[in-house]
Amino acid sequence: MAAIYSGIHLKLKSSKTPWEDKLKLAQFAWISHQCFLPNKEQVLLDWVSHTLVSCYNKKLELSDEIIEKLWTYLDNILRSKKLQSLLKDGKTITLRFSIAQVINERLSFSYDQKALTSVSTVLNCCRSILSIPPLAIVYTAKFDLVVDLLSKLSWLACGQLSSEDAVSSQLFEVLQLTLGHYLRIQRQQANANRVFGQVTKVLLQPCLLLRYLLTARVWTQGEDGHGRQHLNREIRNGIEALLKAGIFQPVLLPSYREELLPEKESCNVKKGALKTRLLPAGTIQMVMGDTSFCQPDVHEKAVASSVPLLFKLFLESYSKSEDHLACFHMLTKLFGCLKVAHLQGDLWTDQLSPSELLAVEQLLNLVLSSSIYNVAVDRIRHKEVQFHFYRQVAQTLVNHPQAHIPAWFRCFRALISLNHLIVEPDLDDLVASAWIDAEVSEPRTKKAQEALVNALFQTYAKLRQFHKLFEEVLSVICRPAAEHLRLPVLPAGIKAKLCECLLELPPNQILDILYLMLEKCQTSIIPDVRGNSDMALKLKSMSSLLHAVLFNMKSLDDSTPLPVVRRTQMLLETMLRGIIQALLDLLKDCHAEDTELELWLEKTEDSVLLLACTWIAADTLFGLNCSKYVSPLGKTALSVADSPVNISDFSAVLPGFDAQYWEKITKRLSCPCSSSRYCIDWLMLQKMKRLSMSSSCCTGALLQAMREAAAFILHSGESCMTEVEPEPWDGDAGAINTSTYPTAHWHLVISNLPVLIPFLSVNDALSVTDVLLKTLLGNQVQAASSDGDDSLISVGKVSKDFLHRPLLPETRLLHTSFISHIVQHCANVLYPTVLDAASQPLRQLSAEGIPWYEAGFSSTVARERLKDEPSVCWTVMEEVAQNMLSLVKVRSFVTLEEEQIRKLLDLLEIVSKLHLDSLFPTDHARLFLSLFSLIVNTKADLVCSEAWPLQLLATCFHLLARLQTGRNVSASFKVFHASDALEAVLTSMLVVCQTSASALTAAPWEEFLRGIQIFLEHYLQIVLERRLSVKLNMEKFTSFLATCQPHAVSSQLTEHWSPAADQLLLVALSAQCHVLTLHVQKQSRNWKASETLLILLQQAMLQTGATIQAFLRNSPKGQPLPLAFIPCVTTLLKADSSCTQPVWLLTGEDEQRRLQESNRHQQLSHRDLYQRFYTQILRELDLASGSMQFLSSALHFLAAFCSMSEFFPAQETSVAVFHSVKKLLSGPGITLQVIQSIEMQLSELIAQLVKNCTSDNFCAILRLVLEGLDISNAWKQNSEQVLSAVTLVKLLLGCPLSGEKEKAFWLSSPQLITALVMQAQEASEDHTMIPTLIVPILDAAAILLRQGEGILSNPHHVSLVFSILLTVPLDHLKTEDYYSVFLGIHEVLFSILQCHPKVMLKAAPSFLCGFHKLVASVMHEGRQKGDGGMTDELAVILKCAQLVERMYSYIAAKTEEFTVFSAFIVSQYVTELQKVTLHPAVKKHLTEGVYQILDLCIERDIKFLNASLPMGVREVLKELYSDYTHYHKTLKQGDEKYRA
Q1: How far lies 757's CA from each of 428, 797, 811, 1086, in Å?
Q2: Which residue in 852, 862, 859 sits closest to 817, CA to CA?
Q3: pLDDT(1454) > 70
Q4: How many CA atoms lie less than 13 Å away from 708 in the CB half-sphere?
Q5: Quick one: three-class SS letters along 773-837?
Q6: Which residues lie across from 793 on neighbouring strands?
Q7: What is the CA radius of gyration of the chain?
Q8: Residues 722-744, buried b or exposed e (16+ Cβ, 10 A)?
């Protein structure tokens, strides 16, 4: 032993031993059990530590390779399990402090060399040391070493984040460990000044730079993992905690006061000696101003990022009411660190950076949220020192406008929220730079601009100074400006905000604004507009603004005060005489027919026409709504109908606008697509409305004039409706240009179609519907790529909205012409290259000369023509129908390419939006024929993908099925015999099956089969319901199906038969059986009809059964059942059952009835087939968890099979089926979403099993459920078994139970409750189990408690459920999971409260504890998180808050149980409320709920709360009770006066 000891020790100390051998020897000594070295571990650790220290102290000279191996050896020792076990056993092992110094030096050297790879092993050693508490003492025992390490690591992390290399997580893990150790040690330091000095000198710069770089880093896809984001967040939080505890300690507050406050403010502060005086704010400012630690551009951004953080931390530490002035002076100090603080007027030429503006915004928001600025206190006590500072900030921002940066707008919004007087001296410049002259295009910037302008509107509206704001707006509009700077004065967003504000303003304020605008026009603009383009542009802006205000103000009505009505009359008269008439007179003198239209003349004309339209619309509206209003036109307006009808003469509604002037301006219009053109169309429309309202009878001349006016409006925009999609329009009539005119014109036409339709000709209607269809098709193409502003109006949106309106189906002329265009477009797509296209069905339907539209008129001529030719349309459609059938018989198909199919699908998408149930007879039949032709007369090209033609056919079948629900469904039977149509459909579809063999398992094929099945069922149902030659049609269809069998002698398709044809034939037979079965059940009391239907049903059953068995014989053995076959067998089984059950109704003899009842099980025609399917499905059920369609069909079959207990013994099937279902639900592919999707089928099946099983079988079923809920499944991580059992509990609770079964279930309910509780406790420990297992357990518990009302007699069993509620966590959940768990807990509490009052007598505290968990959670999640608007997360929290409010009301209703606890409930609420600042919407719901609890409190309770609650909570209670007394209690007492 001594030899071994001396040898190792001597060799390690010997200078003659090579270092490679020393390392090998040291490694052997550490791992070997044969080396008995006293205190071996400490010796080896000391040796390697001493060696490394000696190397870096220059006492030893070793190669870099050896040094690296020494670090690796140290790392291996520190990470070894041997060291961990020794320390765990209590052995004392220490490290030298010098090794910590060496690690710090190596990290510093690595930062200087900009190389992280050289210290990877050093970082590993550091992490190991910090992770082991006995070794970490080398750092924690010396505060300076931890500070130095943290500084080095921070600089190293900054260097790596600044580079473009991938970021290593190793460094940040060590940094996080170091931060944790530092924070623990920092809290133990007694000398606050020393901590402050270390933080500011060593840590402040690297920590702030690191925080900025972590925030600004754009993480790559490989770096940006959830763990990395969590780590970064933890580091940023650690830095904030470090700064708050280091430089803003409570004991430093006197130093801050002494430095920041003026002399007289801080005279009561005891000052220390000069040499010990600390200047913390100045020190921070000096450190922040040091630019030597990083690049200048990075320094500017880092400082901008850090200043708001430091101010936030200062406020969190010192923001008490008595220290608000100190907080403000700290703000000025920190603001001085920003570059923006040093701008002087306009001397600074560079632009403000977004980061600086963002910092200013955050600072102002912090001032706003902390309420450190009190206007009155600042003015009275502090000589407006804060106001002057904010004024200086506002002036700087105004002098350096940055309208492309959202933060610039938000800064002004914050300043206005502080005090509107801050920005009022610069209000004109602000309006100019932020609104009138601001060119904003980026959506985020637009949103910020709209918020600022809205803040201005709301502020001045509340101050009743809206006219003052508009004075500034008008003065800015009237400023001289270059032409290209004349932007639209009211963008869409600002216009919307203005309209909202106008609805809240008193009418007199709006009239003041309008008078201001009229005065500006009369005095400043109109006198100088002639020949002055700039003035004309100002006039255009003013007219747009005047139009917006007058058009969006509240209308006058009979409740409007008479002075307001008279003021409005005077206003409109001034507008008419002083503005419109003056401008019309000016334009009349200008003869520009022979010369090019000047800019000033064009803009003046646009303005006067817009003002004229606005004036007529306002005058008409006021006259209609207010009986006290008298039009300035007087009697002239009432005599329109008496004057000669000249549609070009507007003098009756607008003096000076006669036919001569009308002719002049129409000639003058240089551009047919302009604002003037739109206004002319609008004026014409206003004239039509006036004529319609004022004319008592419709003369021939008036009717002709109205038709001319309608045609003029409609054709006005025809030249501009090109193939190119027009630009969207913001709805401002004053901002229309060449690009937006088509959209505005189309919007005008469509929105006023009810006025225009009575006067449109057939050609005009065709023109409207042609544009409508083209724009709809264009909108579909552009919808996928469109991501524009939803507030803008586009041609596609207008057309789409019109398609959904009820006007189209109510207007036969438009509806018929629209369907004509659809048919014509289909024909154009189908027959572009077909030689005999004229003989094709759709071309015949769209041929010219067919009077489709005459039914749309109501004139005598039209009626007489219909009497002369009553069947022209029907004759054409009958010929087309026969042509279709003949083309099917000769197998003549139009071949479609993929592009044609896509175009047809686009058309069918539009057809699907029509109201197909309200078509007129001819339209119904025509559309039926069109869709029918697409099915039976087309086929896809062989090179085309199979999915597209199948999708086309499925869409056609779905539309045909919808047509069968229409009111004129009989129209299609006028041109077709039902059997002929069905035969043609199946013949053509069997041809399709020849080319679709490879698509049998694809989704389009399943959709195709579903579509044809739905169509056949609807079509056959109509045949049976309407009794359309039922026997003849059904027998012919059955005979045709028999000939389609592959083994049929007459079958023409045997040689081309395929599995797809088998499935198609089965679907047809199944649809026939299903419809006949339903009608047999309906006609069970009508013996004669039932006998006929039974014969037809039996024939269909025989064919269906034979087809299924033939297919099964030919299918490969061992293969799973085809999906399409299972519903067919289910239908066959139900049909078979229907055939056996009503047999006894056909005879009246009791003896025969009893004989057939006893032998009914022998009458099932395919009993063996059903048994075989039952066995096969049970075998495949648990293997097909991924196929939803199979599961749905299989469960539906099993439910039907198990419902026939007289045919199949229930005692054999019930437990077996239940066991298979349990096995299915515990399969690997079954999730909560899958269970929810098949829940209806599961419920149906379990209900049948429970209904037909014996009591013993039911007990066996309960044992299977309890086995699944056994706690061992949770211990074995077998959550699938538990989820299966919980689901089965819910399903059993949904079954009606009686007798022995009910007794057995409720006797086992205590076991079920206990099992659910234990499973919930186990699942709560794993967060991943919460959405998948906890939510179903909560649902099952709630249902169990509700169903057990009056049955669960032992309160203890119910009280067990409270432990679930206290165990389930509500934090760190996704939004959707949070709501599910919250709702589940709420439902359990509600079930106990409502259904188990006896439990509440003893368990009220447990109930309140569970409910308080919900209250505390929703208050934590619903706290104020900035001004983000309504988000998905907030919407969920609001729903949770509503649940809490509802529970409060339920608790208040249970007065007996909770009166004693009312004060306790209130105290819990106010205690939580004191911790957070709630979002207003969330607080509203919670407050309304707690008010109902306060109704239960008596005066003694309130006094008790005031005496017992802490100071801060008491203030919250005081505010809450004050609001309760003021709002809720007063209202309640008022209601009680009138309550019986």
Answers
A1: 49, 21, 8, 51
A2: 852
A3: yes
A4: 11
A5: HHHHHHHHHHHCCCCCCCCCECHHHHHHHHHHCCHHHHCHHHHHHHHHHHHHHHHHHHCCCCCCH
A6: 729
A7: 43
A8: eeebbbbbbbbbbbbeeebbbbb
Cα separation of 1275 and 194, whole Å?
53
Mean pLDDT lowest among 322-331, 562-571, 963-972, 1049-1058? 1049-1058
Q: How far apart are CA 816 and CA 809, in angstroms?
A: 9
| Closest by Cα among 241, 240, 272, 242 to 254 | 272
Q: What is the torsion angle, in degrees rounded to the nearest 10, for the CA atoms of residue 1156, residue 1158, residue 1159 and residue 1163?
A: 70
- Tokens 């003989």 locate to 839
- CA torsion 786-792-798-799 (nearest 10°) is -10
Contacts of 353 (CB under 8 A, 6+ apart): 300, 301, 304, 339
3-state secondary structure 147-181: HHHHHHHHHHHHHHHHCCCCCCHHHHHHHHHHHHH
Tokens 């950076």: give the residue.
353
Phi, psi at 940, each rounded to 5°:
-85, 150
- Residue 573 has a pLDDT of 92
Q: Residue 1420 pLDDT > 90, yes or no?
A: no
d(CA 338, CA 289): 9
Residues 6+ apart with CB under 8 A from 921: 968, 971
Tracing tokens 């000033």 back to the chain, one arrives at: 600
What integer pLDDT is reported at residue 242 of this predicted model? 92
Spatial neighbors of 522 by CB under 8 A, at least 6 apart, are 578, 579, 582
Tens digit of each residue's pLDDT (9 = 90 or more) over 1473-1522: 888 888 888 988 999 999 988 888 888 888 898 888 887 788 888 888 88
Whether residue 67 is predicted with pLDDT greater than 80 in this model: the reply is yes
Here the tokens at position 1018 are 């609807």
- pTM listed for this prediction: 0.78
Judge whether residue 346 has pLDDT over 80: no
DSSP letters, 972-1021, are GGGTS-HHHHHHHHHHHHHHHHTT-GGGTTSHHHHHHHHHHHHHHHHHHH
| Tokens representing residue 419 in the block | 């005090």
Q: What are phi and psi of 729, to 5 degrees?
A: -120, 140
Residues in the chain: 1540
Residue found by looking up tokens 């149509």 in the block: 981
Give the span between the Cα atoms of 78 and 73, in whole angstroms. 9
Q: What is the three-class DSSP state of 1478?
A: strand
User: Token pair for residue 864?
Assistant: 């007489």
In the numeric block, the tokens 């039922």 are attached to 1030
Contacts of 27 (CB under 8 A, 6+ apart): 73, 76
Residues near 275 by Cβ (< 8 Å), separated by ≥ 6?
Answer: none
Give the whole-angstrom CA distance, residue 1113 versus residue 543: 84
What is the C-alpha end-to-end distance of the chain, expressed in Å?
A: 104
Contact call for residues 502 and 514 (beta carbons, < 8 A): no
Average pLDDT over residues 628-646: 64
Q: Coil, helix or strand for 1198?
A: helix
Contacts 24+ apart (CB under 8 A), 587-596: 587/665, 588/656, 588/661, 588/664, 592/668, 593/664, 593/667, 593/668, 596/670
Tally Cβ neighbours within 10 Å of residue 963.
26
Closest CA to 874 of 911, 841, 845: 845
Better pLDDT: 109 or 781: 109
Centre a 10 Å sphere on the Cβ of residue 1276 and count the other Cβ atoms it contains. 10
Q: Cα separation of 1214 and 1212, whole Å?
A: 6
